[in-house]
Amino acid sequence: MTSGTGITLGAVNVQADDPPALAAFWADLLGGAVAGEHDGYVFVSAREPDGFAMSFRTRTGDRPLEPVQHLDLTVPWGSRAAAVERAVTLGAVHRWDVLDEVPWVQWSTLADPEGNLFCLAEHPPAG
Fold it and tell me: Where is the VOC domain (predicted)?
């Protein structure tokens, strides 16, 4: 048995209070496009062939008190601050920065327009 061979992230599925609005935010942030809506789902295409798509549907229950998972997104070294500023301009809320916890990554934690947390991280060049 081969472990992990060929597994990639295809899509992230999100429950939302306003699926079309949240899909538009993520499409703008990630550079994808709102690719359509079908049967209560709004789809956002991946920007690149090896990227991931997103799907948004109406929330079916109460929002959890604490997030059970969040996206860690990577930007090129030296561009995190500009990426955070751009995300805030699109409607995100900057929550905090972690710049010296470990030497291999610096990140900023943000919340999307519905309060879902995500991180923008940068990794220093090797060497």
Answer: 8-123
18-40 pLDDT tens trace: 999 999 999 999 999 999 999 88
Q: How far is CA 81 from CA 10, 36, 103, 113, in A?
A: 27, 32, 17, 19
CB burial of 83-100 (b: ≥16 within 10 Å; e: otherwise) equals: bbeebeeebbeeeeeeee
Does residue 1 lie within any of the structural domains? no
pTM for the whole structure: 0.88
Closest CA to 20 of 67, 58, 48: 58
Which helix or strand (DSSP H or E) is residue 90 part of?
Answer: helix 80-90
Range of the domain at 86: 70-127
**CA within 13 Å, CB half, 29:** 30
